[in-house]
Fold this sequence. Notes:
Blueprint: H1 3-15, H2 20-31, H3 38-49, H4 70-82, H5 88-95, H6 99-109, H7 126-144, E1 153-162, E2 194-202, E3 205-211, H8 220-238, E4 248-250, H9 260-268, E5 272-274, H10 285-297, H11 304-317, H12 320-336
Helix pairs in contact: 1-3, 2-3, 4-6, 8-9
Protein name: Transposase
GO molecular function, one term: nucleic acid binding
Pfam family, one: Transposase_1
Amino acid sequence: MSTENFRFYIKVRTALNIQARIIHNELYSVYGDQAPSLTTVERWSKLFREGREEIEDESRPGRPITETTSENIEEIRLLINDDPYLTIEELQEQTDLSYGTVHRIITDHLNLRKVTARYIPKDLTDFQRAERVRICKENLAKFQQGTWRLCDIITGDESWFYHKQIGRKSSNAAWVRRGDPPPTVVRQSKYASKTLLSIFFKPNGPVFIHHLERGQTIDHQYYINNCLRPLVDEIKRQRPSYGTRGIKIHYDNARPHVHEDVSSYLESEHLTIIPHPPNSPDLSPCDFWLFDLIKRNLTDQSDSQSLYDAVVNFMYSLSNEEYKKTFENGLKECNCV
Length: 337
């Protein structure tokens, strides 16, 4: 029930010579805490007995609405253009306008809203942006022309997986009583037990998953011997008639990936390397989909082997459609660059 409806009821009951306390009890019995207070009912009942007819509020004193002039709108616009991080209070100080006027200009006339800045991995240079566009266009053209097929793509990358899971902020939300302190979760220590996994998959599912033993470092030679060679062997096992013919491999520009020895090995095995734009994790299915999905669904694991087994089991539990849809989304993202 709106405020005006409450006041109209008070007006009618007052006209019938009903006492304010009785009117309040009637409203409270129906609307509970939403009903106006006894003081409010008494005040409006007195006004109606004295002859007031209107149930709307009277205009309040303050700065006139005429402060929303074209000059003030332009002044606010220029200030925000110069510094989009200004608060309404700071705009008040610089313009000597009221809080309400500044807010009205920003929302109603400039049609602006304040949003939190989104963190990005790295601010690309002009050259890197140009390379991102060029590489995406060239890759897309090969798919559109039929030179490359989505079913021939294998993508891969590495990521650290913690043995103990603390979950994301949303999964750690809990109900607490008003006034009680919020729950706390200890941030994951960088020294906590973790394992580096190298994962490769196609649009129809996993191909090869490798976990590094404790103390190992992944350089280009390790990458060739322990990741790429087993990957090539698995491809040949899955495709005895065709081997690696027609297969395209996609990964980001991490240092072990782009070493000349790595490129030479893949070329010797007749694998085509798909160029990846610089600093573009949003174009890598591992980064924008798979790794975060796995980490959200992992449970605590006692050691590297059990963690490896859990990741393998989870990846094979996903449907082929999930993998295919991810690659299709990657192409759509390239198209939006």
